[in-house]
Amino acid sequence: MYDCFRTIDEPSGLTVTTTARPDGVRVVTLVGDIDAATVGTLEDALAPGGRLVADLSRVGFLSCAGVRALLQASARGEFAVVVGGHAVARSLQATGADLLLEIHPRVGGAVAGVTPVPEPGREA
């Protein structure tokens, strides 16, 4: 698998696991609810920027504060979001963030979306 990962288990109910992939993409997997009590954890996980995928496929609730954190992360670098549940998709649609964020149904597609494609004739 991948060499580097870190898990933060917050007593508030949000678990964050960060996996550094060999291609330079960080995948941040979140489990739980993102609301006023946990949005700081999300912001901390997304703060480094760079090529980043936020996997929200196991998030049960996404507040407006969470949507704001996702939008701020997308402004800092190459960023994609994995959405699996209706509640998260609904929050993104209701706020219009679905039109601003790169959204994917699976992690593989999201990683491909933030991984640069080498130009023909050039090495990666």
Automatic annotation (TrEMBL):
<protein>
    <submittedName>
        <fullName>STAS domain-containing protein</fullName>
    </submittedName>
</protein>
<dbReference type="Pfam" id="PF01740">
    <property type="entry name" value="STAS"/>
</dbReference>
<dbReference type="InterPro" id="IPR036513">
    <property type="entry name" value="STAS_dom_sf"/>
</dbReference>
<dbReference type="InterPro" id="IPR002645">
    <property type="entry name" value="STAS_dom"/>
</dbReference>
<feature type="domain" description="STAS">
    <location>
        <begin position="15"/>
        <end position="114"/>
    </location>
</feature>
